[in-house]
């Protein structure tokens, strides 16, 4: 279970094929004159595809990604990719706390890189070197350079893999965990299954509990759940097809880079805190870095596994380790009451609704997320 160094290296013929396909893209007509009202605006897509084909420098993006320490490890017979950024150690400072950061969909390890820099070397960002973390950023199974699991993709199974990665492969006795979206569910399972190893859990999207055995939903909880149902009715089309016909839509996206890009950026715009203007949060180079990674690895289809296997997830057991929620500012969580989180976390020590940063909070607001993590974990370093 030892890890080996890894470098991203997309073959030239893959890039040539990508540019050829981009140059031959056929664009649809707009369905609604209102900008982005019916999905990704065809005019914006044409602009993005043109830049992807003729202006985007993948080799520069690849070099920047390879400045981080990438590794591969075999766990349960499958390859796991992760970035491992060791803390900047200062003489006299305590040993850094290990911290695993888990992304969601349609995201990647790229989401967590700027946060990780701040956590591994807080002194370089005006912080206390005693707060430094050893940061581990794995790619979810089936995403990019991590192989899809042989068994069903459940949040619990990913947590089991992550625990093996942290304790057996990397040799950490005790660590913290952070995540959003899928990563939030994985992080909660880490806390539920391994309280002896997990110092604390910090999430940005609190999983909606279905366990009301300790009392029916309060008025605030019922109001939120009703609003969530109403929102989901207009947002869940993408999830419905990936949950029921993942191979059908994956076939189209595997063959068309433009189709792949719109499937991803539609959610980057809708779920982020960008106010409808996608490039206030990410420039084209960042968006195309993520799209190129999915294209080059051919993993957009396997990233759908967590949707297809979602019914196999079970409710998370009681989570007794210290917990924190920094709630995303995205439509799905507007009005989320703290009491729902308290049904999930027996020891909720940190609760914040900063109203900045959406579904991809770590990518959108890395300074904010780093600050939240430093604050929450600071007193927990000495508790174990």
Description:
The protein is α/β, with parallel strands linked by helices and 384 residues long. The protein is 41% helix and 13% strand. It has a 9-stranded mixed beta sheet, with helices on both faces. Helix 4 (113-120) packs across helix 15 and helix 8 packs across helix 9. The longest helix has 17 residues, at 219-235. The model has no long low-confidence stretch (mean pLDDT 94).
Question: Secondary-structure element order, as H and E?
Answer: EHHHEEEHEHEHEHHHHHHEHEHH
Class derived from helix and strand content:
alpha/beta
What is the CATH T-level topology? Rossmann fold
Strand content: 5-15%
* Number of DSSP strand runs: 9
Poorly predicted ranges (pLDDT <50, ≥5 residues)? none
Q: What's the overall average pLDDT, rounded?
A: 94
CATH architectural grouping: 3-Layer(aba) Sandwich
Helix content: 40-55%
Dominant shape: globular
Radius of gyration, whole Å = 20 Å
Write down the CATH class: Alpha Beta
The total tally of domains equals: 1
Number of helices: 15
CATH superfamily: Alpha/Beta hydrolase fold, catalytic domain
Distance between the termini: 26 Å
Strand order of the largest sheet: 1-2-3-5-4-6-7-8-9
Major pleated sheet: 9 strands, mixed
